[in-house]
From TrEMBL:
<keyword id="KW-0285">Flavoprotein</keyword>
<dbReference type="InterPro" id="IPR000415">
    <property type="entry name" value="Nitroreductase-like"/>
</dbReference>
<protein>
    <submittedName>
        <fullName>Nitroreductase</fullName>
    </submittedName>
</protein>
<dbReference type="InterPro" id="IPR029479">
    <property type="entry name" value="Nitroreductase"/>
</dbReference>
<dbReference type="GO" id="GO:0016491">
    <property type="term" value="F:oxidoreductase activity"/>
</dbReference>
<feature type="domain" description="Nitroreductase">
    <location>
        <begin position="24"/>
        <end position="179"/>
    </location>
</feature>
<dbReference type="Pfam" id="PF00881">
    <property type="entry name" value="Nitroreductase"/>
</dbReference>
<keyword id="KW-0521">NADP</keyword>
<keyword id="KW-0560">Oxidoreductase</keyword>
<keyword id="KW-0288">FMN</keyword>
<dbReference type="InterPro" id="IPR016446">
    <property type="entry name" value="Flavin_OxRdtase_Frp"/>
</dbReference>
<comment type="similarity">
    <text>Belongs to the flavin oxidoreductase frp family.</text>
</comment>
Length: 268
């Protein structure tokens, strides 16, 4: 029996696969001769921002804000704080933030008291920020650009809160750069689908499944002709003494500073 297709698809499955296979994270962009960002046509930027705002959003709230970085000094400082130099040279750069401040202000302006829901704020705020940012990125890719999400905001959160004057209720999730690629990265692997897509209930992968997934992923860690070791790369990020442990206190401090901390204090 053939599956029912409700409407004539606008794209074939092959075209959809090809679009997503064309995605590459790109960190080097074409610039003007003096190394400054190459501006995008206004209508391209407008389409990307339109796509961002068309993202679905829980409870109609749109709990996110995009800080578009245009001032070269601000770009340079954000590049430094995030330890991602291409923030300064990309055609466009944004800091994608969760933002629960605006909805609180809408309530206040309408004469209603906002509730207290810091955990919900993080949950839905990050969801909204990601959906809007990824819509922006896919729109950019449809227009022929490539980009890079930058979780490196966690390397300098306090500095970003100051620099971008982010009030309580607003917290960077990541930065996002877009431009014309000046490098051709390879298609980077993903773990095998059975580890990601579960059927009706969660299934823990076996050790053998995980070893196989690691082999599939190894090329993502290859550098300068040296074969890659994905588990070693993950250790640097997520292992004991790795980068994520180093980032944890800064994130907790920023969550507290922005009024988004729902946890109990230790020892209370
Ligand atoms: C939330 C998020 C944060 C990321 N942070 C960084 C970053 O700080 N710097 C960077 O160069 N790449 C960053 N990346 C890009 C990933 O390294 C990249 O998506 C991954 O290696 C897979 O490569 P691909 O996108 O080309 O398939 C980030 C991606 C995501 C989704």
């Amino acid at each position: 029996m053939t599956a029912e297709v409700p409407v004539r698809p606008a794209r074939t499955p092959e075209e959809v696969r090809a679009f997503y296979d064309a995605h590459r994270t790109v960190r080097h962009y074409r610039t003007r001769e003096d190394g400054t960002p190459l501006p995008l046509p206004e209508e391209h930027l407008d389409a990307m921002l339109h796509a961002a705002q068309r993202a679905p959003t829980d409870a109609t709230a749109q709990l996110y804000s995009l800080i578009r970085l245009s001032d070269p000094g601000v770009r340079a400082r954000v590049a430094e704080l995030t330890t991602n130099a291409h923030v300064a040279s990309a055609s466009e750069a944004f800091v994608v933030c969760l933002d629960v401040r605006r909805v609180g202000r809408v309530l206040e302006v309408a004469g209603h008291a906002p509730g207290h829901w810091p955990a919900i704020a993080v949950h839905f705020g990050i969801g909204d920020a990601v959906m809007a940012g990824q819509n922006l990125l896919t729109a950019a890719e449809m227009l022929g650009y490539q980009g890079c999400w930058i979780g490196g905001v966690l390397n300098g959160l306090g500095g970003l809160l100051d620099l971008l004057e982010l009030p309580a209720g607003v917290l960077p999730f990541a930065a996002l750069t877009v431009g014309i690629p000046a490098e051709q990265p390879p298609l980077r692997p993903r773990v095998p689908r059975p580890l990601i897509v579960h059927q009706d209930r969660y299934r823990d992968p076996s050790d053998e499944d995980l070893r196989h997934a690691t082999e599939v992923m190894n090329p993502i860690a290859a550098r300068a002709g040296k074969p890659g070791d994905w588990a070693r790369l993950l250790r640097m990020y997520f292992g004991q003494g790795g980068g994520m442990e180093a980032r944890e206190p800064g994130l907790v401090a920023a969550l507290k500073r922005q009024g988004l901390w729902a946890g109990e204090e230790l020892g209370q």
